[in-house]
């Protein structure tokens, strides 16, 4: 192993064990070795769960609110000091262009700040008493307590901010947390967790494990000592794991979608195009609410497709560590093969490839615009998770709504129109958890709810909502004749 390759040992509290197996983390752009990470076996998982459960069971060891706030504030200070290093590290391991990784790092810090804000206003609504004879001489004290051990399984595409969303609320709620990062992008997770430890969080309160295989990972998730399970990833894996959870384990999942956009004949095309291009090609389309299906009125459909293509053709594709890069590589080589296959299938079935449609060196793919692919082609019915935008002409807006709602997934959607009545009509009929009016589908700030419906997920993400999920309410009823 080269001396300049960083190594991350097991991050299991109280363990000085050396793992038997290492994962090599490589750049998705040029495959250079970045670091090695020790993998956890079944004994490591058992130790981590025992440590976390014993910690939660000892109420005298719980961190009070002032301690949690101090830790999170110090973590923000440390993250800010290492801002460039963390952003560049995320770009190197995940392939998101550096400019966008800087934005993600800003959001990561803000997500922790939101955790602090939530802690400072974390109150319960009391239950009314004294309103009938049975409830007289009583009042209630409501308090919030941590739900228990949290296990978080994360995805590769936002290696900084997803960890902030899954680990930050657990720390704020006072839950011991064990996090399993994505195997392709674990380094940002290890760096952030180390920062939490440096900020004063005892190691036992946050542990990182990269299990050797799926069976060991499943054992971690489905253990009866887990109070809450947070999952970001594929629907197939998420729903499977939910079916295996122990009785009493609560959960929340984010699975992604096939984001639809409806553009009415009154849409301001020129105003919409830059956002649609950004929303479709940001992080090479590897975003769960990436613009994928654009239903445009037939009078503007070709103009919309051509103008998105005009931007796509000018985008700089390549090394994510260059300041000028706008679209980086896909996370793995087999993803390039899959995306290319889906685009070729659409072309073979009669779709017009307006631009792109070819692979590039270093696991990159050309930003691609497809005009009117068949409704049953893969690019129309499944999440492509690549830099591909499809544009479909329609005659009747209800037809476009029906096509938008036709899939098993439902997440964020958009409608573009200068007619507010028309925009509200479409918004009211779209099957989505959030509808953006005159904004692309990938819009998000970290305090808003972020939830998939149908096959797209379960529960509500977003820092305040995850924080709420990781707590339980306890009611104490006080009885005294002196209470009027």
Describe this structure in words.
- This protein has 15 helices and 22 strands.
- α2 (65-81) runs antiparallel to α4 (98-120) and α3 crosses α4.
- The relative contact order is 0.14.
- It is globular, with a radius of gyration of 24 Å.
- The protein has 2 domains: 6-255 and 457-474, Aldehyde Dehydrogenase, Chain A, domain 1 (3-Layer(aba) Sandwich); 260-445, Aldehyde Dehydrogenase, Chain A, domain 2 (3-Layer(aba) Sandwich), CATH 3.40.309.
- β8 (226-232), α8 and β9 (250-254) form a beta-alpha-beta unit.
- It has helices at 42-57, 65-81, 83-94, 98-120, 161-173, 187-198, 214-222, 235-244, 269-281, 301-314, 333-348, 378-381, 397-404, 420-429, 463-469; strands at 6-8, 22-26, 33-38, 138-146, 149-153, 177-180, 206-208, 226-232, 250-254, 260-263, 293-297, 352-355, 359-360, 364-365, 368-371, 388-394, 409-410, 412-416, 434-437, 453-454, 457-458, 471-479.
- By secondary structure, the protein is α/β, with parallel strands linked by helices.
- The strands form 6 sheets. Strands 12-15-16-11-10-18-19 form a 7-stranded mixed beta sheet, sandwiched between helices. Strands 7-6-5-8-9-21 form a 6-stranded mixed beta sheet, with helices on both faces.
- The mean pLDDT is 95.
> N- to C-terminal separation?
74 Å
Rounded average pLDDT = 95
Count of strand segments: 22
Strand line-up in the sheet with most strands: 12-15-16-11-10-18-19
Q: Based on helices, strands and strand pairing, what is the structural class?
A: alpha/beta
The fold-level CATH name of the largest domain is Aldehyde Dehydrogenase, Chain A, domain 1
Kindly estimate the percentage of residues that lie in beta strands according to DSSP.
Answer: 15-25%
- What overall geometry do the principal axes of the alpha carbons give? globular
Q: State the name of the first-level CATH class of the largest domain.
A: Alpha Beta
Uncertain spans: none
């Amino acid at each position: 192993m080269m001396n300049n390759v960083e190594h991350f040992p097991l991050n299991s509290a109280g363990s000085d064990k050396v793992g038997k197996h290492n994962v090599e983390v490589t750049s998705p752009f040029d495959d250079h070795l970045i670091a090695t990470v020790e993998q956890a076996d079944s004994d490591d998982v058992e130790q981590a769960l025992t440590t976390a459960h014993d910690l939660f069971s000892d109420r005298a060891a719980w961190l009070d609110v002032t301690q949690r706030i101090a830790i999170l504030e110090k973590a923000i200070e440390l993250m800010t000091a290492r801002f460039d290093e963390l952003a560049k590290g995320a770009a190197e391991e995940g392939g998101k262009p550096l400019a966008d990784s800087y934005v993600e790092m800003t959001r990561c810090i803000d997500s922790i700040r939101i955790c602090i804000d939530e802690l400072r206003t974390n109150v319960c609504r009391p239950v009314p008493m004294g309103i009938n004879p049975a409830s007289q001489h009583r009042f209630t004290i409501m308090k919030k307590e941590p739900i228990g051990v949290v296990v978080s399984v994360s995805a590769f595409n936002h290696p900084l901010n997803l960890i902030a969303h899954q680990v930050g609320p657990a720390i704020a709620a006072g839950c011991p947390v064990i996090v399993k990062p994505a195997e392709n992008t674990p380094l940002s997770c290890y760096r952030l967790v180390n920062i939490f430890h440096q900020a004063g969080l005892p190691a036992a309160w946050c542990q990182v494990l990269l299990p050797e295989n799926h069976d060991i990972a499943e054992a971690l998730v489905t253990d009866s000592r887990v109070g809450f399970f947070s999952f970001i990833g594929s629907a197939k894996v998420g729903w499977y794991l939910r079916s295996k959870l122990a009785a009493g384990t609560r959960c929340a999942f984010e699975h992604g979608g096939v984001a639809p956009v409806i553009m009415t004949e009154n849409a301001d095309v020129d105003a919409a195009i830059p956002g649609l291009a950004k929303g479709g090609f940001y992080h090479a389309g590897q975003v769960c609410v990436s613009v994928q299906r654009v239903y445009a009125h037939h009078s503007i459909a070709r103009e919309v497709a051509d103008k998105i293509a005009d931007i796509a053709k000018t985008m700089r594709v390549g090394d994510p560590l260059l300041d000028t890069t706008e679209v980086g590589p896909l996370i793995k080589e087999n993803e390039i093969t899959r995306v290319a296959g889906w685009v070729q299938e659409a072309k073979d079935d009669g779709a017009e490839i307006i631009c792109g449609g070819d692979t590039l060196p270093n696991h990159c793919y050309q930003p691609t615009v497809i005009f009117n692919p068949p409704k049953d082609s893969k690019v129309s019915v499944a999440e492509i998770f690549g830099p591909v935008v499809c544009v479909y002409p329609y005659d009747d807006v209800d037809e476009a709504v029906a096509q938008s709602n036709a899939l098993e997934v439902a997440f964020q959607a958009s409608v573009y129109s200068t007619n507010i009545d028309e925009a509200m009509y479409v918004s009211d009929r779209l099957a989505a958890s959030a509808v953006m009016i005159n904004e692309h589908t990938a819009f998000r700030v970290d305090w808003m709810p972020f939830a998939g419906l149908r096959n797209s997920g379960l529960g509500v993400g977003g820092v305040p909502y995850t924080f709420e999920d990781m707590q339980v309410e306890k009611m104490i009823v006080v009885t005294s004749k002196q209470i009027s």
